[in-house]
Design a protein that fits this description.
This protein has 299 residues and is α/β, with parallel strands linked by helices. The protein has 13 helices and eight strands. An eight-stranded mixed beta sheet has the order 1-2-4-3-5-6-7-8, with helices on both faces. Helix 5 packs parallel to helix 7 and helix 6 packs antiparallel against helix 7.
């Protein structure tokens, strides 16, 4: 089922699979502003053989209704939209799966609503934007060096060391990522050709107005600044069973974040994907499906 559902004064684009199954899984996309489309293209169908799967474009993103320039919007709105969607769909409890920035949202949702979030799955999440952005910049440096791109080398060296805020590094990575051009995708993928991914996304939703509307979503989250705050000191607050999915070549969920997760969260599991970077669900799809279903069945 694909539909626009009225949720808290807007309409969210929702895809739902196997709605007769009692065990439910909510997918939260990353970005910010990345959409649920690539998850739904493959994994939603695969996972729905065992569980009920719900995925949606977050408020203001892609196929959901746009956010107006004067509208108030922040991370808490995404959290409340999740809970309102659960009630709308008549689901008592569900497992929440968050990818990248979606992992940040999933953690806060689970902590705020422990009675309705049954389990949490983190796929290459960022618990600490400052750590993630610094690692991106460090990872970009050897690429610039291999290209003899002096401006890029200088920019990376400027930010690799020094006391910069999460916001500073986020903005710096935006500039550095643009300078990398087509080489930027090399940091996100290991087990698949990034061109295949880009062609898939463009085929599902061509570049244009639908994607552009998500910029307001991104800008307002940046202005609010909540997602720049590290979750590392708060990880111990998670009471649900959780699974951390990591990619060996992923630049986002750094070693520091993985170690803190391992130390601070008592009831946890970790599955590492040796051939993946930031998208294990696409790079090693069979292993990904198995890891998700196994975790849900065991917990």
């Amino acid at each position: 089922m694909k539909s626009l559902l009225p949720i808290r004064g807007t309409r969210l684009y929702v895809e739902e699979y196997n709605n007769t199954c009692e065990e439910a899984l909510l997918y939260l996309h990353g970005g910010p502003g990345a959409s649920c489309l690539d998850f739904c293209y493959h994994q939603a169908l695969e996972l729905s053989e065992t569980v009920r799967v719900i995925a949606f474009d977050q408020r203001g993103v892609l196929k959901s209704d746009p956010i107006s320039v004067g509208e108030t919007f922040g991370i808490q709105d995404i959290i409340e939209d999740c809970e309102a969607l659960r009630i709308h769909l008549g689901i008592r409890k569900w497992t929440v799966l968050g990818h990248s920035f979606g992992g940040y949202v999933a953690f806060n949702y689970a902590v705020q609503y422990p009675n309705t979030v049954k389990r949490v799955i983190f796929e290459t999440p960022s618990f600490d934007i400052k750590s993630s952005m610094r690692n991106f910049i460090q990872s970009a440096l050897p690429i610039f060096q291999s290209l003899n791109h002096q401006e890029g080398i200088q920019k990376c060296n400027q930010y690799v060391d020094g006391d910069f805020s999460a916001s500073d590094l986020w903005n710096a990575w935006g500039e550095i990522g643009q300078q990398l051009g087509e080489h930027r995708d090399r940091l996100y993928f290991k087990g698949m050709n990034p061109e295949v991914y880009n062609e898939l996304v463009d085929r599902l939703v061509p570049p244009g107005e639908l994607w552009e509307r998500g910029q307001i979503h991104i800008n307002k989250l940046q202005e609010e600044g909540e997602f720049f705050k590290s979750l590392l000191p708060k990880l111990h607050k998670l009471t649900q069973s959780s699974l951390l999915i990591t990619g060996v070549f992923d630049p986002v969920c750094t070693v520091e974040q993985q170690e803190t997760y391992r130390q601070q969260i008592p009831n946890h599991s970790i599955v590492s994907f040796d051939k993946s970077a930031h998208f294990p669900r696409l790079e090693e799809p069979k292993k990904y499906k198995q890891a998700i279903i196994s975790f849900i069945k065991q917990n």
